[in-house]
């Protein structure tokens, strides 16, 4: 279809559509005879979604992430909602101060009157980035979106699934929850590109593991043995693991192995397939590492990783965290493995 028809269907101007094409939110085909764009139904869907999300105040870069990887939508919408709540909180404080000024202001004030009354109204300073991060820090819903969004159903929740999701957010809502506090700190240091990359990789990886049969599990154990050796041979990978162990790898492993997994499994049964396979895989690898053949590698792991490893807890699943981290070609932690 031609651009004018797209304008009519989406309510967007030609200028806006060209801008969104430039921003890589869609890539319509081009008619080779006249050089005009030839739009399809998916292009209209994308543009309609862009319009809705722009009306909600989301940035172009965030919308691009959502369009390219719809699975991250919940994470970014939660992030945006948190930001809106912080802005509302700040504006409400300012509004109360302005009301105080109006109540005390004479009908014909002088400059000194305006200054003195304004000074007494205690108008708050604009929130710095640090202060904005502090406000609402007890809300762990964003971390739950990051951890579990890949396992949630794409269609609308049933009433029972909504109840379970609310329960997960309620029982993890304690601001003093150490694992959630660490993960929030970790996520705040990631670029949007890295978050997209991490969520996309984990979704693909977890789908693959959940689908393993017995032979697939055994094959993965063998590939993990090789990967562990490659990791230990790469100084940069070892340093990345050690740097992010306390804030990311350890907390995620503990949360995945907690009672929360049972609630997530009720929402999404395939999650339990993933967890069941990972437990079996890591148990077999753990046993091999404690055999004569695997002991040299185990000794290297504990030596190279310098205390940033605890294979005795969480069904030995730090093994899977270590290997899956290595499988990302460009790691989402902002580093590239050394060649």
Account of the 3D structure:
The protein has 339 residues and is an all-alpha fold. The chain folds into three domains: 3-55, Orthogonal Bundle (Multidrug-efflux Transporter Regulator, Chain: A, Domain 2), CATH 1.10.1660.10; 72-134; 141-327, no CATH class. Helix content is 68%, strand content 1%. It has a two-stranded antiparallel sheet. The two termini are 47 Å apart. Residues 129-138 and 329-339 have low confidence and may be disordered.
Strand content: under 5%
Main sheet record:
2 strands, antiparallel
Helix residue percentage? 55-70%
User: What is the overall number of helices?
Assistant: 17
Number of domains: 3
Q: What's the Cα radius of gyration? A: 26 Å
Q: What structural category characterises the helix and strand content?
A: mainly alpha
List the strand order in the largest sheet: 1-2
Rounded to the nearest angstrom, the distance between the terminal CA atoms is 47 Å
Q: Mean pLDDT, nearest integer? A: 87
- Give the topology string: H per helix, E per strand: HHEEHHHHHHHHHHHHHHH
Number of strands: 2
Low-confidence stretches: 129-138, 329-339
| Overall spatial form | globular
Outline the secondary-structure elements.
Elements: H1 3-10, H2 14-22, E1 29-30, E2 37-38, H3 41-55, H4 60-68, H5 73-104, H6 111-120, H7 129-134, H8 141-148, H9 159-171, H10 178-188, H11 192-210, H12 214-232, H13 235-256, H14 260-267, H15 269-289, H16 295-304, H17 318-327
Antiparallel strand pairs: 1-2
Helix pairs in contact: 5-6, 5-8, 9-14, 10-13, 11-15, 12-15, 12-17, 13-17, 14-15
């Amino acid at each position: 279809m031609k651009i004018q028809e797209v304008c009519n269907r989406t309510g967007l101007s030609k200028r806006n559509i060209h801008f969104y094409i430039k921003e890589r939110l869609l890539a319509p085909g081009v008619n080779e005879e006249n050089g005009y764009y030839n739009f399809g139904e998916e292009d209209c869907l994308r543009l309609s979604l862009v319009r809705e999300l722009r009306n909600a105040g989301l940035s172009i870069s965030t919308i691009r992430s959502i369009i390219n990887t719809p699975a991250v939508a919940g994470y970014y919408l939660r992030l945006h909602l948190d930001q809106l709540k912080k802005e509302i909180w700040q504006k409400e404080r300012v509004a109360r101060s302005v009301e105080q000024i109006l109540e005390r202001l004479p009908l014909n004030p002088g400059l000194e009157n305006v200054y003195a009354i304004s000074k007494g109204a205690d108008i708050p300073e604009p929130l710095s980035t640090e202060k904005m991060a502090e406000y609402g820090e007890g809300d762990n819903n964003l971390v739950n979106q990051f951890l579990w969004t890949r396992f949630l159903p794409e269609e609308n929740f049933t009433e029972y699934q909504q109840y379970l999701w609310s329960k997960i957010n309620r029982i993890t809502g304690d601001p003093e929850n150490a694992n959630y506090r660490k993960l929030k700190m970790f996520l705040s240091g990631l670029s949007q590109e890295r978050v997209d990359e991490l969520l996309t990789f984990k979704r693909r990886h977890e789908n693959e593991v959940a689908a393993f049969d017995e032979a697939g599990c055994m094959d993965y154990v063998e590939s993990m043995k090789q990967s562990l050796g490659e990791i230990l041979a790469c100084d940069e990978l070892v340093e990345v693991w050690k740097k992010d162990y306390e804030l990311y790898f350890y907390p995620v492993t503990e949360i995945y192995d907690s009672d929360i997994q049972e609630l997530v499994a009720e929402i999404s049964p395939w999650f339990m397939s993933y967890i069941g396979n990972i437990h079996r895989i890591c148990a077999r690898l753990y046993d091999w590492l404690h055999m004569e053949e695997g002991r040299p590698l185990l000794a290297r792991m504990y030596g190279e990783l310098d205390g940033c490893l605890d294979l005795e807890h969480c069904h030995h699943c730090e093994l899977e965290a270590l290997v899956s981290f290595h499988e990302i070609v460009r790691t989402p932690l902002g580093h590239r493995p050394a060649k």
